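COMPLEX REQUEST
Ligand: NAP
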Amino acid sequence: MKAIVITGGSRGIGRAVALLAAARGWAVAINYRQDDAAARDVVERIEAEGGRAIAVRGDVTREADVAALFAAARAAFGDIAGVVVNAGVVAPSSTLADMSIERLRTIFDINVLGSYLTAREAARAMSTDRGGAGGSIVLVSSAAARLGSPNEYVDYAGAKAALDTLAIGLSKELGPAGVRVNAVRPGLIDTDIHASGGQPDRAARLGKGTPLGRPGSAEEVAEAIIWLLSDAASYTTGAIVDVTGGR
Ligand code: NAP
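STATUS: Structure written out below.
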């Protein structure tokens, strides 16, 4: 059974990826920051269907926590074949002029540093020139990276643009070592992240204005991520895939 690591796998898009991956035959290690009950629920659902899963609490901005996540996944399942760099946060809508240094640090720490640390650990674990068996990394970016998110969160948008660039550079670095690297840019997806940014109705409200006329679901994003992880995408690397309903 191939094993996959998913950061932020307890809720939203990460949770949907965990459930779909397990249904498609992957063993799943999810990371989460604080919501033990949500993480336990994902593991129990997967085990109830006969799958294999573990949940590892940790903060992706902490180097030791990221290393511990991969160590736990390897101890449970052996070689890692896929990593979904998904944990991410927004903050309440604001113009740049009104953003505090604390907010900027948090947004860049979690979305950029946390993602780079996770991708680094993935490179170390899967590269064939370091003893790994090869694999696939999917970075969860955002349509914000090309829209810029004015008056909402230009900090988050810039942080996600860093992940698009990482997909391009790291795919070239790791291609010869048997690791594909791609990014997915979700649009307006119906998850709790919008409530955490102070706009619980954001996806429903703005989703109506997209070409497909509705917000997307976490499951629809998970389908694209699982495809990129799988051998069906064996010649796809360095790609940035929009899952935005045309937005
Ligand atoms: P969500 O529902 O708010 O879930 C966030 C997940 O990340 C939770 O599992 C949370 O764990 C975890 N997390 C947050 N900070 C963490 C940290 N420092 N260390 C480890 N785990 C952490 O978010 P979502 O909507 O599914 O978003 C998932 C990804 O998709 C993010 O990168 C987001 O930027 C991106 N995205 C989302 C949308 C959208 O419309 N929903 C659009 C574009 C891109 P706890 O619950 O334990 O804190």
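REMARKS: The longest helix spans residues 101-126. The chain has a mean pLDDT of 98.
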